[in-house]
Amino acid sequence: MIHIEGLTRRFGPLTAVDSVYLDVSDGEVFGLLGPNGAGKTTLVRMLACLIEPTEGAATLNGMDIRRDRALIRSKIGYLPETPGLYEDLTPAQNLRFFGELHGIEREGLEQRIDRLLEEFSLSRRRNDAVSTLSKGMRQKLAIARAIIHEPSVIFLDEPTSGLDPEARAMVREVIGGLRDEGRIIFLNTHNLDEAEKLCDRIGIFNSRILAVGSPAELSRGLWGEKVVFRLPADRLEEGALEVAIERIRRIPGVLDAHSDGDVLKIAAPEPDRVNQEVVRILTESGIPPVYINEEKHSLEEVYHRIIGRGCADGLSV
Amino acid sequence: MAFRFKMAWVIAKKDLLQFRRNRYIIFTLLLTPLLLSVLMPFISITPVVSLFEDNGDFNYIALHRPETYFNLNETGLPPGEFPYLNRYYVNSTELNYCSANNSVIVNSTVKDGLIMGSVIESSHLSGVFIKDSFILNSTVEGSSLINCTVVNSSLSDTMKRDSRLYNTTEPGQITLTDYISLMVDSMLFMFILIPAIVPTIIASYSFIGEKTGKTLEPVLSTPVSDSELFAGKAMAIFIPTMLATLVSFVLFSVLIDALTAPLVGKILLPDMKWMVAMLITAPVFCIMAIELNVFVSAKVNDVRAAQQIGGSVVLPVVVLFVMMSMGMIKSSVFMLLLLSLAVFLIDAAVFGLAMKMFKRERILVDWR
Fold it and tell me: Following CA atoms A211, A217, A220, A222 in sequence, which dihedral angle do they give, to the nearest 10 degrees?
């Protein structure tokens, strides 16, 4: 697992990463979501032991990022924002170079290269120069390069940025495959859709972690658990609804209830305990609900709300 | 962490593989030896050689056939106050006050005489009037030469008219051997220039290429240490550069020897001075060029700019080259060793600074 405690990095007067506390458990896909220039890359570079933190500490599977730098680098896979492949070399040569840097023995390495190229559907292009590959293929190759030594933790910095939808789908599929193999995947992204689709948990980040949780948890944290009752519009009578809402508000566990046209919204942290009562009251009032739904907020709404609030609170330093 | 040569070699191998696919680097590495080792000897030595060479005059040697001559030992000196030798073969004899025509005089001493249309070899002549003759490997003093060809000899206090001297010393004159040696030596610094220039071209691709392609970051995320990475990249430049230099030197030596050996009668290269220059001076200059190019590459983003700035490394070498060709310094083994030591000390000092520059963190954060 990854354990981060007060990690901070300053560049002169600028604080790129400000006192980050975070735990990521094994087999989890964690997404760090934040605007460009938020310090996501700096945080990941510190965790990958590329740059040193100014303050704070972090461990990866028990290895300390200040003490065990070379050891950590041998156990992690890292895909930087720009894939940084050697364009004049072939996919196989690129993979071989990194395999050798990780000290993989020759025979095992060749097998592993063959397998990765096969898995990522690059076998047919194994002896072409990387410069002739499509962007999506390059990104897949870069991911293959990051996992050539079977790392237990993989850092992916903006893995799909700049890719067309087809290539993006290709890369997502690969990342999904890695998750299924049970590794920790730490993903930096500013793509909300990607974070929602790929990540178990998301950290909304702008120099510091502003909120952490699954997309649903984040939404609930902001707006509370809300249940939406769609009422029959033709049976709505002004007075009856008012009375019903008053009765509903008195149910223990209901924080708020209000109507908007034919929609009744109820805020309740434990909806399973109050829903039945609400339905009963509505039915008694002659306006039985047509549908009952959980109120959903898109990650985009969550993100904008949190980032906006973070900035308003002066959190971005 | 201990330095692992294997890791450095992995880096070097990758760079060498990339160089093989880069036609600019291949072009540079092939052109350098071609230019320096093949063209230079022809440009500088051939004119000198042809100046001294005139095969027509050497036809005198055809006269050198003992069986067509009277052998002086058998016939004895002809009678008379001023004995007149015609078609005589004179070997290991002392001739005083006589005249020789159409004869061959070998290993002899001739004093106060008159020699015409003869071949004189390995002899000592003094106070002799010599006309239409060929003189080889001899010493001539206080004499007069008219229409003679003199090869490999030394003349002193001697009057010459219509005569040709090859590799022959006169007071205040240098021999062909000396002259050729000087020409060859003047090219020594050209050969130190190769290891100073070639790294500039390769290093700019090697470092700036990694920088602009952003290929260093993934490498830095592997267990390779900063010093292994630096050593690997330096090795990848050092090996082809020194290979090009040494191959050039071998070709150059073969060509120079082939061109000059028939004239000077000995093999000029390799000698001690050149060996020191190639095996000690050239490598230390090569290392200096690599180190300085790391600095330049850290600051510059453009291969051309890096090459231009990096090219300034050669300036000190050019200064030396000019000073040498103007006779201000004479290249000697001692001078080369001294120079190598000085450059080595600079290398060591710059190495510390280059390693500071070549830290993961600085490469990622400061190299722009």
Answer: 10
